[in-house]
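Quarterly update from the structural biology core.
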Amino acid sequence: MSLRFLTGAAAIALIGALAPVSPASAQQAAPAPAPAAPTHFVWNGITFSGHIDAGTNINPDSPDNNTNFGQLFTDRSNSFRVNQTTLAAQQDIDSTASEFNWGWRLEGMYGTDARFTHTIGLFDRATNSPYQWDLVEGSASAHLPVIFSGGVDMKAGIYPTPIGYEVIDANGNFFYTHSYIFNYGIPLKHTGIYATGHVMDMLDVWAGADTGVNGGPPFFRGSDNNKTGAFLFGVGINNPIPNLTILALAHIGAENGYVQGAPCLGGVSPTGATSCYAHDPNAAVRQIYDVVTTWKATDQITVANETNYIRDDLFHATAEGTAFYGIYKWSDQWSFGARGEVFRDDQGFFVTSFQGSQSFMNAERGIGMGNTVGPTNLNNTGYNAGKATYSELTIGANWSPAIAFPSALPSTLGLTLRPEFRWDHAWGLNPGVHPFGVTKASVAAGTTGTKDDQFLLSVDAILSF
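Predicted structure, tokenized:
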């Protein structure tokens, strides 16, 4: 049994030992049912909130590259990580009002998740550590009582994508680990503007424009990896039957960065220097289509489905998947859930592990573009297993203990623990290729891993206020 395995097991035990003396729950339920969040601190109409999310993923195989293949945010095996430390301030809008009103939100984050969420051009290479900084959101919102019976809501700035079932904020997810769809099938953030028109109680229409997946403000140098924007559009259907919602959104735009190499196209780089590029990233788009259906069947049961299709026209790569969720709220303190998913990476382009702290950002920028088959991590980008179909089954619980804490501490403090068990499987691979269980011997042989299955026992703790 390896030292890393024992270290991760000790971290799980430490979290469990701390639970009885930690504050009460503050799970801010987004898609999943959970205990009601305590009231946040409010000053002069401004709401302040934040959380710390930390956890570990025990991988019995103890891969020699310390990587849980097929994951981004929980990619490190048998090690303890502080994923998110956030602080937010906001003034919400009232979407039901009959008069104009506006609001805003500012949220910063520090932790290992910022390796993947950070906006291009902001805090780039501020540190080589896996712990990095991110401006999760800096936006202004407004409700306009115009055009439609329910008016129009608008948001502009830097903001998390409205696409998908799972979200960046740990409080908004039932599970600690993420789906393949969240990791590889949808954007994470945008810089731009979008509007939601409330046509009628049952129908919303969405439209927006932005600088692309994780792209930054156009006036920041290097904040976009190409010179083309993107568009967001879709519809939302509310309560065609009681407590059922459907959100279908699409995002289309050029998303690849400039890549130096052959054949030479004889172009001029965005900085004005004459150079050669392997391709023109503005000549093709990435298409993302996503449908989320959520039904709160009873006060205790919520079921959901997300179906996703993504295509990169430049690399002629496609992927598609579907994920099902079932959440049962047993009590104010306990909820139980399961997630089952199948995700097909048709050309082996999307499902990639990025081992270096800057690797994901480099790939977005086009530095060392081109994922490699095998864990050699060429050009500090990432490695994959080629074309494959991946499935995962995750079962877990949310425990929000009712704890009496000292009156000197803020009354809004809360704790949620999320233990889970996850099984990943891959099939349809090329002969001799395996994505999981990387060993030194497999690296030396220039292949991928040694197994088609991966088992994880994970747990994290969210301390919120």
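The two ends are 38 Å apart (CA to CA).
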